Task: structure prediction
Amino acid sequence: MAPVSFGTIAGVPTAHASKYLQQLCKHWQHNLAVEFTPDHGTVTFPKDARGAAWTGDALVTFDAGADALSVRIDASSGEHLEAMKGVVARHLDRFAFREAPLAFDWQAA
Result:
């Protein structure tokens, strides 16, 4: 039986979506499984990343649009999902420091 996935998606208003997508993916590719183009990226956070003990991996998917960055997170539990929302928001705000804090309109996926 496949593990239950908890998901959320947010549209983050910015004119620099592709730039931030690429910066985040390049940052995380040093120690995580990352695939990306200027318009789409995926990052897999292992269930045991940084000493964590989640029941499954988390997958973060980015899609760059003209005026927003779409962020989708799929995690193994509600707590895992909340933790990943914080990780993504903190890192994105760090790269988007001129615009930070960015608005995340998290919705159930």
Remarks:
- Strands lie at 6-13, 33-36, 40-45, 58-64, 68-75, 107-108.
